[in-house]
Amino acid sequence: MSGNDLILELKELKKSFGGVVALDNLSFGVKRNTTTSLIGPNGAGKTTVFNLITGYFGPDSGLLIYRDRPLKGEKPYKTASLGIGRTFQNVQVFADMSVLENVMVGRHLRSRTGLTLSAVLPSFLRPEERRIKEEAWHWLEFVGLERFSDMPAGALPLGNQRMLEIARALAMEPELLLLDEPASGLNSRETIAMGELIGCIRDKAITVMLVEHDMELVMEISDRVAVMNFGRLIAEGTPREVQEDREVISAYLGE
Amino acid sequence: MTDWLQFLFMGIQRGAIYAMVAMGFNMIYNATGIINFAQGEFVVLGGLMMVSLTMVMDFSIVFAFFLSVGFVTIVGILMERLTINPVRRPTVLRLIIITIAVSMLFKGSAMCFWGKGSHYMRHFTEAQPLEIMGATIMPQTLWIIGILILVVIGYVLFFNCTMTGKCMRACAINRDAARLAGINDRRMVMLSFALSAAIGAIAGIIITPLIQMDYARGALLGLKGFGAAVIGGLGNSMGAVAAGLLLGTIEAMAGGYISSHYMDAIALVIMLVVLFARPGGLFGSSEEVRLKEF
Amino acid sequence: MPLKDYIGFCILIALVLLMPHLVANDYYLGVLVFTAFNCLACIGLCLLMGYAGQISLGHGAFIAIGAYSSGVLTTMLDWSPWTAMAAGALASMAIAFAVGIPTLRLKGHYLAMATLGFASIIHIIAVAATEITGGPAGLLDIPRLGLFGYSLDSDVSYYYFAWFAVVAGLYFAFNLVHSRVGRGLRAIHGSEDAASAVGINTNIYKIQVFALSAVYASVSGSLYAYYVNYIDPGPFDVMHSIVLVTMVAVGGLRHLWGALIGAVLLSLLPELLSMAAAPLKVIGIAYKPDYDILVYGGILLLIMMFLPEGLFAGLASASKSGTAFLMKLIKGGSIVRQ
After folding, report:
1. Which of A112, B268, B278, C197 is the most buried (most CB within 10 A)?
2. Domains, chain C, with CATH or none
3. Does domain B2-111+139-292 have CATH number 1.10.3470?
């Protein structure tokens, strides 16, 4: 590993959608083993940052450097294999599959069996299958959903679906985890539980980057906070520094 | 050396039909995002209805023409009202299978009413071929070309100069925004089925004197029409007209110069090649196809 | 594989073993053999439609490729039936890759139209390439299949063999569904974005399943050729592909048992209808086999509109709510008694 302790670096990223500028010369870095929050008013371009990092689309110009190597428009399944996990703003659990199976899908990259072997051998003759199940169970316990394991995921309340999405991403054993508004739509009790969970994830030495609107949660769990407005970075620093920044205050309160 | 001219006439005649079938596909695709697998059956129903009205009931061509188009239009509206409209929260897969089921019903009904044989119909005007530069052309082919031109003009006027047409275009571009602007998008879907049934019927009526319509022709006509729609760029109706004429001409040339056994296969091979290599169509950008799905 | 499915297998095997004793008539035994061919093709198609969410309107073409490979290679080149069958399956797989790779990377249902076009081309070739396929007159004298030096000559032996193939095909399909690959496929169906976010290469999976389903169809075509010993282009038209889609959709896209039930019911339906022709005549309806297409289309339309999950899921949920209702009645009854 190089002396650089940044796991991810964004350099002068630009992206526009049909004339609407979503990102305008955005640059900042994410330190290893920290929790970094990306905040800003609606439409500031936060989710666009996530979609660029995970390869759902490419930037118009600029560089994304992950683990000291530039990302060159790798597709989402490829960025996943590089160790970037994510959740979605509008939760995307596999609704028809059981809660446990959802997490088992997360073990996809950590298992091997291909189509032919899968077809020929029944599941009880495949040791890998049992291992996948045990590991999935472990991550289900980690987020505290093990009592729902047999339920179809679509039947869970929203708060638990968000937890499940995180468990599925954690099962990939990512190095960098992107959480897109993990507390949106949650009540205050669920939000507290979510904050605790994100704390536990950082303790596992996973770098967490999140987009969030709940300022109380952001200020409590973040090591660093980056503030965006109109596709540009307007402030970056510790929660305290950001809270006292004039430009941030004016962006949020309006002048 | 007038073979090529002869094949060209043949190709334009076939191509005009593919162009009109393709326009019908595009209209429903733009309104709903699905491919209507019953599109070819509209052509068959139009042709067979015309046969009954002119040859059995002995109506005049003009009267029978409008009656047949009206009949198939009503069939199209009924199809939308009874099978597409009632489906709540439809998936594309489900709607496609529904149109397949409807096409089976149309085909079966056509067989029950008109039997399995092919039907002769008298030409619109006299059946004496005209001679042009050593090649012969049927007056009916001229009718086909003329009616295609009228349909295209009508299409352009409708979508550019009438309020309803503009509303349909708005729905095709952005359904949610159109709805917010107060456009009844469900009604637009019904209208798209009505119009595409009407165009299909016209195609069937004008080609029947030359090919002798039977109940089973729908699938192949529909498939080649879809080929024209793909080559022209799905959703782009003017592209479809050009592509239809092109496809018909290539097919006729290949049939004449290479092998008549494989004539039908050649059009399909061209369709597959375009689908594989340039799914956005010959006239569209490849970027466009990413936004399109059905 | 859940316990329920093992029980399902036991019931299926028991039925397969029992049928020849219930059906004394050779004709009906033959119908059951044809049913087995349809079941095999439908299992593969169900993997594609229900688990990868794609329609193929050209599976009749893969059946044709299996049948003609078997027919041509055994009669003209004297290959053994088994090698010819394997060659057909490999050819189908290769063609599925060739058709699937360009179309499946597009979003939506381009595969449906591409396969429909492809199936029409195959049918045209089967009719026109008379030197190889025999054209409309067909290929004669295709040999019977042998097993361990024992020729499967009688209808009963072929019946057992064909249904053994169905059970094996179903078993492979079930293993696949309950594996890493199967979960990946169901994940794609659930949310393509989320599936790729956990590292599933959605295109490769769809293509692989399409190729696998082509192999199922091809094997069913080979078995058909060895059973009837004569093939012509007639049964391999586009309509047959659409009937296969109907079978899977009617039984239930989302479940292998559904596809199997759909295939069995719709394969037996023409027989039931022709049996019903006599009583229908009494009430003044002259039923002809020509009307089958109307019946198929009507059933498919009704199922898709009112029971989109298919008969199997419909029956399952009906029995579930039925039991719930009974439980309520019993509980309600006990309260009254108190």
Report:
1. C197
2. 3-306 (1.10.3470)
3. yes
